[in-house]
Amino acid sequence: MEHAVNDATYTITDLAREFDVTTRTIRFYEDEGLLAPERVGRNRLYYQRDRTRLMLILRGKRLGFSLNEIRELFDLYDMAKDEKPQLRLLLDRIAKKRAQLEQQKTDIEIVLAEMGALADRCKQILGE
Question: Given 1.10.1660.10, 3.90.650.10, 2.170.130.30, 3.40.50.300, which CATH number is that of 1-63?
Fold first, then answer.
């Protein structure tokens, strides 16, 4: 992969600190093929692309994507430069995940409302 002369570089420790994860976590994502730092001797050298991908991995995990789904999205993105079929598939996957998250959001709101009503009822019984 070509890098610009002024492309910022990061160590594994830099990224671990910035994203509040362990270096072991970053190495795991590397082992899974989601990150591909340059090797300089025994050291890993991460570029802006790696930093962005780590940010997206962590965001994807937070949103409920599996590592396989994240990998698939990365693969689709990497292949998609001008490929309309890949972009359509990517949009379809995003729409499905959004629908799933919206349903989860609705379910959470319902459960929270039920918990609030139950707590109110308990307080009423206790005379509070």
Answer: 1.10.1660.10
E strand spans, 1-128: 9-10, 38-40, 43-47
Mean pLDDT value across the chain:
88
Q: Torsions phi, psi of 64, nearest 5?
A: 95, 10
HSE at residue 31, side-chain half, CA atoms within 13 A, is 6
For the stretch 42-101, pLDDT in tens is 888 999 999 999 999 998 888 788 899 888 888 777 776 667 776 787 788 888 888 998
